[in-house]
Each structure stands twice: as structure tokens, then as C-alpha cells.
Amino acid sequence: MKKELKRGSGIKEVSQKYNLSIYTIRYYEKIGLYKVPRNENGVRVFDEDTSMRINVIVYYRRAGLSIKQIQHIFRTPTQDKEHIKIFLQTKEKLLKQFDDLKKTINFLDYKISYHKKELSKKTSRETDAN
């Protein structure tokens, strides 16, 4: 379960919530993916808007979008057709990966079943021998 951020969270809390390193959070800010408000001492204070932006970035990265693609999407918010194209292509790749993973899981299930049967045969022979 994800930890809820309180209003004006620090970088450590954001790091824990989104399972990102502090370095990554700072890097995303440095390359302009978001701006983090700071308090009077210059310490980053992550507000709800920044938290939502980071959440979007996490999902985009999880989906396989590159940093350049994410920057482009953020810089061109009104280019809906282009964004749809990127998202459809990404979805297609993910569905292919998902299908490949299902096939791999089925193969592993087969191998587990096979080896359990072999182990059962060996156990039976050992029991018969005693």
C-alpha cells in the first residue's frame, strides 16, 4: 500500500512513496519534468501538483516511455493526436510483453509439473526399495 503524502512533503517521503531514489527525483527536476516549490530555507516542499506530476512520470516510465518522450508530452500538452499515437504504440508493446510473459509462465508451470512428477517417481522408488 502506498504511503499517503502529507501536505508539503519532503524529498525522503516522496522517494519512499514512489519508490524512486532521491537522485532520480532531483534529476527529473533538473531536466525540467517539474518544478518543486521550496520553503524559505530553500528546502524542497513537494505539493500536491508536483506529487501528481511525479505519479504520472512513474507510470510513463513503468510503461516504457523514455525521458525524451515524457519531456515531449509535457512540452506539447495540446498535441492530442501525437500523444495518442505514442500511447497506442506503447500499449501495443506492453500487450506483446504481457503475452510473452503469459507464455513463459505457462512454460514454467509445465516444467514445475514435470519435475514434481519426476520427484514423485523417485520418492516412490526409494520408498519401494526400503
Proportion of residues in extended strands = under 5%
- Low-pLDDT stretches are none
> What is the overall number of helices?
5
Shape: elongated
User: From the structure provided, what is the oligomeric state, counting identical versus distinct chains?
Assistant: single chain
Mean pLDDT: 92
User: What string, H for helix and E for strand, traces the elements in order?
Assistant: HHHHH
Q: Can you give the helix content as a percent range?
A: over 70%
**N-C termini distance:** 51 Å
Give a count of the beta strands, DSSP E runs of length 2 or more.
0
Radius of gyration over alpha carbons? 24 Å
Tell me the major beta sheet.
none
Query: Structural class from helices and strands?
Result: mainly alpha
Protein model, in words:
By secondary structure, the protein is mainly α. 71% of the residues lie in helices and 0% in strands. The chain has 5 helices and no strands. It has helices at 11-18, 22-30, 48-63, 67-75, 80-129. The model has no long low-confidence stretch (mean pLDDT 92).
Descriptive key words:
mainly alpha; 130 residues
Topology at a glance:
Layout: H1 11-18, H2 22-30, H3 48-63, H4 67-75, H5 80-129
Quick description:
By secondary structure, the protein is mainly alpha-helical.
